[in-house]
Automatic annotation (TrEMBL):
This is Long-chain fatty acid--CoA ligase. Residues 326-401 form the AMP-binding enzyme C-terminal domain. It comes from the Bacteria. GO terms for molecular function: medium-chain fatty acid-CoA ligase activity. Belongs to the ATP-dependent AMP-binding enzyme family.
Length: 405
């Protein structure tokens, strides 16, 4: 039987997981822990016994989110008697569970918001079958958020192996890929950018998936060099709706079977309420939810589009609406740049001016003058940052994405 989880020096088998589930018939409805195996054990026990669960980050301060009673965190509740003969029976119970799982948005641009999901919506994108057996997944997401849950369910329902690499340094990630012969990686573009520069390629990786942030062709080209035999795809998922679209490159296509569940108003993608979890924070326009994601059609008749930016990330510069992502793409494509972050700073004359923070690859020598010279060939003057700052690192959210607030 395949290993369930490698976490540092610790190895956990599926047999061990079943034994823990059978032996410890209590669970924590609100649970905070740094122990990822204990977290998964608690998650599975709640689901297979049809119990509600609130997922909390291990370092969460309850004041950050509404509706969390700190006195109830890590208080165990007795479960009714049960017994599972093997991992197959655990998976079967999970697949028909009526549990409701509460998760929180990542807080990329504001306070995290609470969303309640059924197991059906959380596992909507899971693929099952013999072709998915024997996969080894790099676990590169925070386990308490949507993307981490989706990777977990995909691996767990196929009894694959997970290798925890979340928040690891570049050299450690590469060491884990080689040691455990990792075949699948799903992570944010920020995660992949932090793998640069690289010294060798890893042909054992079969599939690379990007999600959670806008990516760019420069990053795709580097990923192809690091993982030369991997198929690369992009996924669109949100805490509010789970996984909705997949793409090769940066063009997404709305699946025909759910095409009537979407509409676009003033370039913003709106999602029908039937695809969402439940939340008091949702605001609807009729039956549709404003996703906050701005898109541009590539082929409207076939439902093919590209994401442009988040609506609340546009910066007003002298009356022009600037998409920081467009400027970041241009900066990130410059040789020696690992990643950039562009944002607006209040200005009494222009409303805002653009500031760019730039993180260079190790050993790279790139000046602000060189960056501006390159940008002038590609962008209008009002899109060129007024100030360029070189930084050693960026603040990230708990989900591993750039923190833009």
């Amino acid at each position: 039987m395949a290993a369930f989880l490698f976490n540092g020096a610790e190895e956990y088998s599926y047999k061990m997981l079943v034994e823990y589930i059978n032996q410890h018939k209590k669970y924590f409805p609100l649970y905070k822990t740094h122990d990822i195996f204990a977290y998964f054990e608690n998650l599975i026990k709640a689901i297979v016994t049809n119990r509600p669960l609130v997922l909390l980050d291990s370092d969460l301060n309850p004041s950050e989110v509404a509706g969390v009673d700190e006195s109830q965190v890590n208080i165990a509740v007795q479960l009714p008697d049960y017994h599972f003969d093997d991992i197959n029976s655990v998976v079967a119970a999970l697949q028909k569970s009526s549990s409701e799982i509460t998760i929180f948005t990542s807080g990329t641009t504001g306070q995290p918001k609470k969303v309640v999901h059924s197991i059906e919506t959380l596992t909507r994108s899971v693929h099952l079958g013999d072709r998915y057996k024997g996969q080894v997944w790099a676990y590169a997401y925070n386990p308490t958020h949507m993307a981490g849950l989706q990777v977990f369910f995909q691996a767990f329902e196929n009894q694959n192996t997970l290798v925890n690499v979340f928040n690891m340094q570049r050299s450690d990630v590469y060491q884990k890929i080689a040691q455990y012969q990792i075949t699948h990686i799903s992570a944010t573009p920020t995660f992949y950018r932090l793998l640069l520069p690289f010294e060798e390629s890893y042909p054992m990786v079969q599939r690379v998936t990007l999600g959670g942030e806008k990516s760019d062709n420069h990053l795709y080209e580097n990923i192809k060099k690091i993982f030369p035999k991997a198929k690369i795809n992009n996924v669109y998922a949100s805490t509010e709706a789970g996984s909705l679209f997949a793409a090769k490159g940066d063009c997404f296509q709305i699946p025909e079977k759910i095409c009537e569940k979407f509409t676009v108003v003033d370039d913003e993608l709106l999602i029908h309420k039937s695809l969402l979890g439940k939340s008091d924070c949702f605001k609807f326009d009729g039956d549709y939810y404003h996703s906050g994601d701005l898109i541009e059609w590539v082929n409207k008749e076939e439902g093919i589009f590209k994401f442009k930016s988040r609506k609340n990330e546009l910066v007003n510069v002298g009356g022009y609406k600037v998409n920081p992502g467009e400027v970041e793409d241009a900066i990130n494509a410059i040789e020696g740049v690992r990643q950039s972050l562009v944002y607006g700073k209040a200005n009494s004359i222009l409303g805002n001016v653009l500031i760019a923070e730039v993180h260079l690859e190790d050993g790279a020598e790139v000046t602000d003058i060189e960056i501006r010279k390159t940008l002038r060939k590609q962008l209008q003057d009002f899109k060129i940052p007024r100030k360029i700052k070189f930084v050693e690192a960026f603040l990230l959210t708990r989900t591993g994405k750039l923190k833009r607030s």
